[in-house]
Specification:
Length: 274
Protein backbone atom coordinates (compact mmCIF):
# COMPACT_ATOMS: atom_id res chain seq x y z
CA UNK A 1 0.00 0.00 0.00
CA UNK A 2 1.44 3.37 -1.06
CA UNK A 3 1.77 5.31 2.21
CA UNK A 4 2.63 8.94 2.91
CA UNK A 5 4.23 9.86 6.23
CA UNK A 6 3.74 13.54 7.08
CA UNK A 7 5.04 15.26 10.20
CA UNK A 8 4.60 18.64 11.78
CA UNK A 9 7.95 20.32 12.51
CA UNK A 10 8.01 22.48 15.66
CA UNK A 11 7.26 20.48 18.78
CA UNK A 12 7.07 17.26 16.76
CA UNK A 13 9.95 16.42 14.41
CA UNK A 14 12.25 19.18 15.63
CA UNK A 15 14.02 19.15 18.98
CA UNK A 16 13.14 21.75 21.65
CA UNK A 17 16.05 23.77 20.19
CA UNK A 18 14.27 23.83 16.80
CA UNK A 19 16.80 21.50 15.19
CA UNK A 20 16.91 18.21 13.34
CA UNK A 21 18.95 16.04 15.69
CA UNK A 22 21.67 13.74 14.41
CA UNK A 23 19.56 10.64 15.06
CA UNK A 24 16.49 12.11 13.36
CA UNK A 25 18.53 13.23 10.37
CA UNK A 26 20.32 9.92 9.92
CA UNK A 27 17.12 7.92 10.38
CA UNK A 28 15.06 9.92 7.89
CA UNK A 29 17.79 10.14 5.27
CA UNK A 30 18.19 6.38 5.39
CA UNK A 31 14.47 5.63 5.27
CA UNK A 32 13.80 8.11 2.46
CA UNK A 33 16.71 6.70 0.47
CA UNK A 34 15.16 3.26 0.92
CA UNK A 35 11.84 4.48 -0.48
CA UNK A 36 9.87 5.96 2.43
CA UNK A 37 7.48 8.65 1.18
CA UNK A 38 8.00 11.46 3.68
CA UNK A 39 7.13 15.13 3.94
CA UNK A 40 6.24 17.74 6.54
CA UNK A 41 3.40 20.18 7.25
CA UNK A 42 4.32 23.33 9.14
CA UNK A 43 3.27 26.87 10.00
CA UNK A 44 6.74 27.96 8.85
CA UNK A 45 7.38 29.58 5.47
CA UNK A 46 9.89 28.50 2.86
CA UNK A 47 12.52 30.77 4.40
CA UNK A 48 12.81 28.90 7.67
CA UNK A 49 11.41 25.45 6.82
CA UNK A 50 13.66 24.61 3.88
CA UNK A 51 17.04 25.35 5.53
CA UNK A 52 16.02 23.22 8.51
CA UNK A 53 15.01 20.21 6.42
CA UNK A 54 16.97 20.29 3.16
CA UNK A 55 19.50 17.76 4.50
CA UNK A 56 16.77 15.12 4.77
CA UNK A 57 16.13 14.67 1.06
CA UNK A 58 12.36 15.06 1.45
CA UNK A 59 10.85 13.35 -1.59
CA UNK A 60 7.22 14.56 -1.48
CA UNK A 61 6.12 18.23 -1.75
CA UNK A 62 5.86 19.86 1.67
CA UNK A 63 3.07 21.90 3.24
CA UNK A 64 3.97 25.44 4.34
CA UNK A 65 2.20 28.13 6.38
CA UNK A 66 -0.46 25.75 7.69
CA UNK A 67 -1.58 24.74 4.21
CA UNK A 68 -1.26 28.04 2.36
CA UNK A 69 1.43 26.63 0.05
CA UNK A 70 2.52 23.26 -1.24
CA UNK A 71 6.16 23.39 -2.25
CA UNK A 72 8.37 20.97 -4.17
CA UNK A 73 11.80 21.13 -2.51
CA UNK A 74 13.43 18.87 -5.10
CA UNK A 75 12.53 21.18 -7.98
CA UNK A 76 12.43 24.47 -6.04
CA UNK A 77 8.91 25.50 -7.04
CA UNK A 78 5.45 26.05 -5.63
CA UNK A 79 2.91 23.42 -6.62
CA UNK A 80 -0.15 25.20 -5.24
CA UNK A 81 -1.00 28.38 -3.31
CA UNK A 82 -4.20 29.57 -1.65
CA UNK A 83 -4.64 33.33 -2.11
CA UNK A 84 -6.73 35.67 0.04
CA UNK A 85 -9.39 37.73 -1.77
CA UNK A 86 -8.36 41.38 -2.06
CA UNK A 87 -11.26 42.84 -0.07
CA UNK A 88 -10.78 40.22 2.65
CA UNK A 89 -7.10 41.23 2.92
CA UNK A 90 -8.15 44.84 3.40
CA UNK A 91 -10.62 43.85 6.12
CA UNK A 92 -7.96 41.79 7.90
CA UNK A 93 -5.59 44.75 7.93
CA UNK A 94 -8.34 46.99 9.28
CA UNK A 95 -8.92 44.48 12.10
CA UNK A 96 -5.24 44.64 13.06
CA UNK A 97 -5.20 48.43 12.84
CA UNK A 98 -8.38 48.86 14.89
CA UNK A 99 -6.76 46.91 17.72
CA UNK A 100 -3.36 48.62 17.39
CA UNK A 101 -1.58 45.35 16.57
CA UNK A 102 1.16 45.13 13.94
CA UNK A 103 1.63 42.12 11.67
CA UNK A 104 3.68 40.64 8.86
CA UNK A 105 1.94 40.25 5.48
CA UNK A 106 3.12 37.71 2.91
CA UNK A 107 2.73 37.84 -0.86
CA UNK A 108 3.93 35.50 -3.58
CA UNK A 109 5.03 37.76 -6.41
CA UNK A 110 4.70 37.10 -10.13
CA UNK A 111 8.16 35.51 -10.19
CA UNK A 112 7.11 32.95 -7.56
CA UNK A 113 9.07 34.51 -4.68
CA UNK A 114 7.64 34.86 -1.19
CA UNK A 115 7.99 38.41 0.13
CA UNK A 116 7.15 39.50 3.67
CA UNK A 117 5.97 43.08 4.23
CA UNK A 118 5.71 45.03 7.46
CA UNK A 119 4.90 48.60 8.46
CA UNK A 120 6.41 48.60 11.93
CA UNK A 121 8.06 46.10 14.28
CA UNK A 122 6.72 46.56 17.79
CA UNK A 123 7.65 43.46 19.79
CA UNK A 124 10.88 41.67 20.71
CA UNK A 125 9.71 38.44 19.07
CA UNK A 126 8.82 40.19 15.81
CA UNK A 127 12.20 41.96 15.80
CA UNK A 128 14.11 38.73 16.41
CA UNK A 129 12.13 37.01 13.66
CA UNK A 130 12.83 39.74 11.13
CA UNK A 131 16.51 40.12 11.97
CA UNK A 132 17.19 36.38 11.73
CA UNK A 133 15.56 36.19 8.30
CA UNK A 134 17.34 39.27 6.98
CA UNK A 135 20.69 37.70 7.83
CA UNK A 136 19.84 34.57 5.84
CA UNK A 137 18.13 36.00 2.74
CA UNK A 138 18.60 39.04 0.57
CA UNK A 139 14.97 39.90 -0.16
CA UNK A 140 12.40 38.20 2.03
CA UNK A 141 11.44 41.38 3.92
CA UNK A 142 10.29 44.78 2.72
CA UNK A 143 9.06 47.68 4.83
CA UNK A 144 6.18 49.86 3.63
CA UNK A 145 4.21 52.56 5.43
CA UNK A 146 0.76 51.16 4.63
CA UNK A 147 0.40 47.41 4.17
CA UNK A 148 -2.96 47.90 2.51
CA UNK A 149 -1.13 49.40 -0.49
CA UNK A 150 0.44 45.98 -1.14
CA UNK A 151 -2.59 43.81 -0.29
CA UNK A 152 -3.52 42.54 -3.74
CA UNK A 153 -4.53 39.23 -5.29
CA UNK A 154 -1.12 37.73 -4.52
CA UNK A 155 -1.53 38.02 -0.74
CA UNK A 156 -1.46 34.67 1.05
CA UNK A 157 -0.84 35.13 4.78
CA UNK A 158 -0.80 37.43 7.80
CA UNK A 159 0.94 36.60 11.06
CA UNK A 160 1.83 38.18 14.37
CA UNK A 161 2.74 37.17 17.88
CA UNK A 162 2.08 38.52 21.36
CA UNK A 163 0.09 38.06 24.57
CA UNK A 164 -3.20 36.22 24.23
CA UNK A 165 -5.28 39.09 25.60
CA UNK A 166 -3.80 41.49 23.03
CA UNK A 167 -4.36 39.24 20.02
CA UNK A 168 -7.74 37.80 20.98
CA UNK A 169 -9.78 40.84 19.82
CA UNK A 170 -8.06 40.66 16.42
CA UNK A 171 -8.84 36.95 16.15
CA UNK A 172 -12.49 37.56 16.99
CA UNK A 173 -12.72 40.29 14.35
CA UNK A 174 -10.99 38.13 11.72
CA UNK A 175 -13.40 35.28 12.35
CA UNK A 176 -16.22 37.50 11.09
CA UNK A 177 -14.49 38.15 7.73
CA UNK A 178 -15.70 36.08 4.80
CA UNK A 179 -13.03 34.29 2.78
CA UNK A 180 -10.41 33.85 5.52
CA UNK A 181 -9.67 31.55 8.41
CA UNK A 182 -7.15 31.78 11.23
CA UNK A 183 -4.98 29.75 13.59
CA UNK A 184 -4.46 30.92 17.18
CA UNK A 185 -2.12 28.94 19.39
CA UNK A 186 0.62 29.08 22.01
CA UNK A 187 4.17 29.05 20.67
CA UNK A 188 6.20 26.06 21.83
CA UNK A 189 9.40 28.10 22.27
CA UNK A 190 8.72 31.50 23.81
CA UNK A 191 5.34 31.34 25.57
CA UNK A 192 3.82 33.95 23.25
CA UNK A 193 0.66 33.40 21.21
CA UNK A 194 0.63 33.25 17.42
CA UNK A 195 -2.20 34.54 15.26
CA UNK A 196 -2.09 33.50 11.61
CA UNK A 197 -4.64 34.50 8.97
CA UNK A 198 -5.03 32.83 5.59
CA UNK A 199 -7.54 31.84 2.91
CA UNK A 200 -10.46 29.75 4.15
CA UNK A 201 -9.30 27.16 1.61
CA UNK A 202 -5.89 26.84 3.27
CA UNK A 203 -5.53 24.11 5.89
CA UNK A 204 -3.32 21.16 6.61
CA UNK A 205 -6.39 19.02 5.91
CA UNK A 206 -6.88 20.37 2.37
CA UNK A 207 -3.16 20.27 1.64
CA UNK A 208 -2.78 16.64 2.73
CA UNK A 209 -5.90 15.74 0.75
CA UNK A 210 -4.46 17.45 -2.36
CA UNK A 211 -1.11 15.65 -2.08
CA UNK A 212 -2.84 12.34 -1.42
CA UNK A 213 -4.96 12.61 -4.54
CA UNK A 214 -2.35 14.16 -6.84
CA UNK A 215 0.36 11.60 -6.06
CA UNK A 216 -1.84 8.55 -5.50
CA UNK A 217 -1.24 7.79 -1.84
CA UNK A 218 -3.60 5.16 -0.48
CA UNK A 219 -2.76 5.73 3.19
CA UNK A 220 -1.57 8.69 5.26
CA UNK A 221 0.21 8.55 8.63
CA UNK A 222 0.42 11.96 10.34
CA UNK A 223 2.47 13.14 13.33
CA UNK A 224 1.61 16.25 15.36
CA UNK A 225 1.68 18.08 18.68
CA UNK A 226 -0.39 21.27 18.56
CA UNK A 227 -3.89 22.51 17.78
CA UNK A 228 -3.05 23.42 14.18
CA UNK A 229 -2.39 19.69 13.60
CA UNK A 230 -5.97 18.67 14.30
CA UNK A 231 -7.03 19.32 10.71
CA UNK A 232 -4.11 17.22 9.46
CA UNK A 233 -5.28 14.40 11.70
CA UNK A 234 -8.71 14.59 10.03
CA UNK A 235 -7.04 13.86 6.67
CA UNK A 236 -4.95 10.94 7.98
CA UNK A 237 -5.67 7.24 8.31
CA UNK A 238 -3.28 6.87 11.23
CA UNK A 239 -2.96 9.77 13.70
CA UNK A 240 0.20 9.86 15.84
CA UNK A 241 0.72 12.34 18.69
CA UNK A 242 4.11 12.89 20.25
CA UNK A 243 4.35 12.57 24.02
CA UNK A 244 4.60 16.35 24.51
CA UNK A 245 1.47 17.03 22.44
CA UNK A 246 -1.50 19.02 23.64
CA UNK A 247 -4.19 16.95 25.34
CA UNK A 248 -6.53 17.65 22.42
CA UNK A 249 -4.07 16.00 20.02
CA UNK A 250 -3.59 12.99 22.26
CA UNK A 251 -7.35 12.56 22.53
CA UNK A 252 -7.66 12.59 18.73
CA UNK A 253 -4.68 10.27 18.15
CA UNK A 254 -4.63 6.56 17.41
CA UNK A 255 -1.11 6.29 18.84
CA UNK A 256 0.92 8.33 21.33
CA UNK A 257 4.69 7.96 20.95
CA UNK A 258 7.81 9.43 22.55
CA UNK A 259 8.18 13.20 22.97
CA UNK A 260 10.20 15.39 20.65
CA UNK A 261 12.84 15.50 23.40
CA UNK A 262 13.17 11.74 22.81
CA UNK A 263 13.19 11.94 18.99
CA UNK A 264 9.84 10.16 19.09
CA UNK A 265 8.97 10.47 15.39
CA UNK A 266 12.31 9.17 14.13
CA UNK A 267 12.36 6.29 16.59
CA UNK A 268 8.80 5.27 15.69
CA UNK A 269 9.56 5.37 11.98
CA UNK A 270 12.73 3.37 12.48
CA UNK A 271 10.81 0.66 14.36
CA UNK A 272 7.78 0.53 12.05
CA UNK A 273 9.00 1.32 8.53
CA UNK A 274 11.87 -1.05 7.93
Amino acid sequence: MKTLYVSDLDGTLLSPDAEITQLTGETLRGLIKDGLNFTFATARSIYSAVPLTEELGVNVPCILMNGVSIYDMQNDRYIKNEYIPVEASAEVLRAFEANNVRCFMYRIDDAGSLICYYSEITTKVMRSFAESRKKQYRKPFEQCRRLIDRADGNTVYFTTTGPREVLLPVKEAVERIEGVDCAFYLDVYNGEWYLEVFSHMASKYNAVKFIREKYGFERVVAFGDNLNDLSMFEAADVKVAVGNARDELKAAADIVIGANTEEGVARWLKENCR
